[in-house]
Every structure is written in structure tokens, then in C-alpha cells.
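cache lookup: miss for this entity combination. No prior model stored, computing from scratch. Input as submitted by user K.M.:
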Amino acid sequence: MEGKQEINPEAWVDEYGDVLFGFALARVKDRETAEDIVQETFLAAVRARERFKGQSSEKTWLFGILKHKLVDHYRKNKSTVHVQDFIQDPDSLEAFFNAKGSWRIRPENWRADPGKSQENREFLDHFYRCLSGLSQKTADVFAYREIEGLSTREICQRLGITSSNCWVILYRARMLLRRCLEGVGFGQKHGGDIT
Amino acid sequence: MSHWMFHCDEVSQKVSQSMDAVLPFNQRMAVWMHLLMCRYCYRFRQQLMMLRRMSRAVGNGSTCAQTEDMLSHAAKERMKKKLDASS
């Protein structure tokens, strides 16, 4: 059975419930919501257990599902920020550039220092709100690549897309996310002028 | 336009792609030439690097707050019942 592991969903609650809950509670407003998200994570894991191949640890696998549930939560939440609030036509990345291929909306200097936890917290809040404003597929590909750290090859296999398609989606996600983060105030105003 | 010179729109694509794959040597050179001369593309690259650092931190919880709170006994029992019913 090529190393398939025995899966015991009820034991997950005792073994991983607290760490998943702690992770979720740091990212949502109240205990009740965090509990719901952890429960949804376990239920989704039960439904997807056939796909768990034991390549990663059970904990890593459950955390992967939890992160997607958190993004879903923000997506359903009113606090979602839509990138179209900051750019007129997000479907066309040409909106970022003029006819000569130069920046039309210039990238700003970002003021955050990743070493400062307060700024991390602020970034995190903006980050989830912006991520949840992307289309489902774009957000999924970005989350797989940048949050979970999967290779593009793994993402292609998982979603049944080509490498070049994956690069296009990642490019779109990064362009829209960075613009959204600037739009919600992550950048310094002086650099973000429109030419 | 010289064939080996990229404009900002092309450089932004190549910078993004370089985070997921190794670009051919000539493209890497062309991108770096451009980055040396264009502060907006340089900023763009810095933004993507930061987006990656922070996203990975979100993923492993290393720099983000991780509360010490634990699930209540009642919540755990509720979850087990749900799991039992669904499996």
C-alpha cells in the first residue's frame, strides 16, 4: 500500500485541534469563528483524505487546508477588498502600463519592515483582505505557491494546468495583490503617482 | 527597440517568472540591465520579494501572532461528533 497512513479523524481533534485553533484565532476576530474554521478544516480533510498521500506530515497537510479555509472565510467576509477599487480594469493588466510599455501606475516604496511584528499584523490583515478579492483560481494558485510553497510543477499537477498558464496566473495575482496592498495604504504615497 | 532590451511591462513579467523558474541567461541579463536603470521596476521586484517573504511567514506562522488559546473541551467534543457523523 505504498506507505499509506492510517487516518483517524477524531484523533486529529486532540492532536492538532489546539495548534490549528491558535493559528486561526490569530487571524480572525473571535473564538467562535476560529472554532468554525477549524471544524470546517477537519471536515474538508475527511472528505479529501483519499488525496492525502503521506508525502507531507498530517499536520502540514491539515495546515494547508486550514489556510485555504481562512482565505475562504475572508472571501465571504465583508472586509474583502476588491482590486477594482484601485484599478479600473483588473481583467486587463495593460491598465498598469502605457502604450510604450512603461508603468502607468508606478510602484510605490513600501514602508513596512518585515521584522516588526506590528507591521506584520497590519500586513496580514491587508493581505488576507486583498487575497480574498481575487478570483478563486488566481487566489488558489497564489496561495499554493507563496503561502504553501509548492513548486509550479506541483501546482500544475494539482490543478491540471500548464506551466506557462501557471506563470501567467501568478503574474496576475502578484500584480493585483501588490496594487491592492498599495491601495489599502501599504505604500508611501509619493511614489504611486499615475503618469 | 533593440531586441535584447525589455520594456517595463515585459520586465515585470520576467521578474515574476524568475521567482518560479530559472530564466535563460540572455533574459536574466536583459532584466538586470533594465533593473539597474529603472527604479520602478526595481521597486516592483522588491515588492514581489516582500510579498513572498510575508506570504511564507503567513504560511508557517513564524512571524505572525500565534495565540496560546486552546479549544474548549466542549468544542472538541462537538467536532468529534461532527467528524464521526461525516466519516
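stored under new cache key. Chain A is about 55% helix and 0% strand.
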